[in-house]
UniProtKB/TrEMBL annotation:
PANTHER family the record matches: HOMO-OLIGOMERIC FLAVIN CONTAINING CYS DECARBOXYLASE FAMILY, PHOSPHOPANTOTHENOYLCYSTEINE DECARBOXYLASE
Family: In the N-terminal section; belongs to the HFCD (homo-oligomeric flavin containing Cys decarboxylase) superfamily.
Gene (UniProt): coaBC
Stretches of the chain forming a coiled coil according to its record: none
Region entry Phosphopantothenate--cysteine ligase, spans: 197-416
Name by which UniProt lists this protein: Coenzyme A biosynthesis bifunctional protein CoaBC
Length: 416
């Protein structure tokens, strides 16, 4: 029995071409169907050498065919593209990219690509030499010029003993991009090519003893979402991450791990120089112990000494001050503020005051509390500009907030 799509279930066509990474399409399919999407898998004949049709049919509840002469009365080579809300091709081999760029349509998948009027996301996977070949790069540029979203491949282990750029991004990342495009079809323009951005993420930790630390509840998800979306919009991204949840490094992103506020300060000041945009999304601990105890503080100790605290550096303020003094160049500096309201001021009031105090170009203000901002998948807030602009960011996935921020950053960079 096939599962019939309904109006409130987004229709996704999942194209699968013939590369070894085709097995990962099963996880993409599973994640999409489990989050309420109606998914029709359209593989190439070559893809079925890696994953059988029965597997795709069992996971999707939809029939799987490769040619245009099956169920001709339903005109699938036209109907699938016309009715889809999103087309995702993962993996997209060099051969498929070439055929798509040249408008060739020998099978059901390439016919679907020609008839689709919805967002099309192609996720390449191939050996490094194939990805870097001028023909492939020309085909990718052609597709992007037509509005096709061609994701950046990851770097890592390929087939055999080879490693390099060309690995399929993690299925969770692909699904995140797909869901973002279903929410906002214009969320991934190729508008940050040639821009270098530096992003901080996660929560710093300050050791009390070899076991305990001062920290906060930041998971790092928002900073990682910012890095992921910037990379898939063409930016050269450096992500400076303190403690995070078990997060996968986004495809195309250079990761630098740090632990304490001092470590983050040192790396951010070095990396910010010459950046087009610096985004301080990390939750930096405001205080650190004056002295770190070298042994574990025992619970049996009577009347332990109070923990004396010292202020940590204000990294965002230092970057702004260094730019003002001509010690580093950074086109745009963006801060994040996690705020709560109080008896005298609202979250937004505190955010406005912080923007003026920090002197950065833009500030994202998040209301925090139980189930808000920290340790959750979604976010909301306000985007404040030093030019007096204020934009409400509706509640949604953290990737959507990231896209909204990069829209503003891209506009301001283009105006400079």
């Amino acid at each position: 029995m096939t599962s019939e799509p309904t109006e409130d279930r987004p229709r996704v066509v999942l194209g699968v071409s013939g590369g070894i990474a085709a097995y990962k399409a099963c996880e993409v399919l599973r994640r999409l169907t489990e989050t309420g999407h109606s998914v029709r898998v359209v593989p190439t004949e070559a893809a079925l050498n890696f994953v059988g049709a029965a597997t795709f049919e069992a996971l999707s509840g939809q029939p799987v065919v490769t040619g245009v002469f099956s169920d001709v009365h339903e005109v699938p080579h036209v109907r699938l593209g016309q009715e889809a809300d999103l087309v995702v091709v993962a993996p997209a081999t060099a051969d498929l990219l070439a055929r798509a760029a040249n408008g060739q349509a020998p099978d059901l998948l390439t016919n679907t690509l020609l008839t689709a009027r919805c967002p099309v996301l192609m996720v390449p996977a191939m050996h490094t030499e194939m990805w870097e070949h001028p023909a492939t790069q020309h085909n990718v540029a052609t597709l992007r010029s037509r509005g096709v979203i061609v994701a950046e491949p990851d770097s890592g282990r390929l087939t055999g003993k080879d490693t390099g750029k060309g690995r399929l991004p993690d299925p969770a990342e692909i699904v995140d991009l797909a869901r973002l495009l279903l929410t906002s079809s214009t969320a991934l323009p190729w508008d940050l090519e040639g821009r270098r951005v530096v992003i901080s993420a996660g929560g710093t930790r300050e050791s009390l003893d070899p076991v305990r630390y001062l920290g906060n509840r930041s998971s790092g998800r928002q900073g990682y979402a910012l890095a992921r979306i910037a990379a898939h919009r063409g930016a050269d991204v450096t992500l400076v991450a303190a403690h995070t949840a078990d997060l996968i490094t986004p495809a195309g992103v250079r990761l630098i791990k740090v632990g304490t506020a001092e470590e983050m300060r040192s790396v951010m000041l070095a990396e910010a120089d010459g950046a087009d945009a610096v985004v301080m999304a990390a939750a930096v601990a405001d205080f650190k112990p004056v002295n770190r105890v070298e042994h574990k503080i025992k619970k049996t100790e009577r009347d332990p000494e109070p923990v004396a605290l010292a202020r940590n550096p204000d990294i965002l303020a230092e970057i702004v001050e260094a730019r003002s003094a001509g010690k580093l160049s950074a086109s745009l500096i963006v801060g994040f503020a996690a705020e709560t309201g109080d008896a005298t001021s609202s979250v937004l009031d505190h955010g406005r005051a912080k923007l003026a105090r920090k002197g950065c170009d833009m500030l994202v203000v998040n209301a925090v509390g139980e189930g808000m901002a920290f340790e959750v998948e979604d976010n909301s807030g306000w985007l404040l500009g030093d030019d007096g602009t204020e934009e409400r960011i509706a509640f949604g996935a953290k990737s959507l907030l990231a896209s909204t921020l990069w829209d503003s950053v891209g506009r301001r960079l283009s105006d400079q």
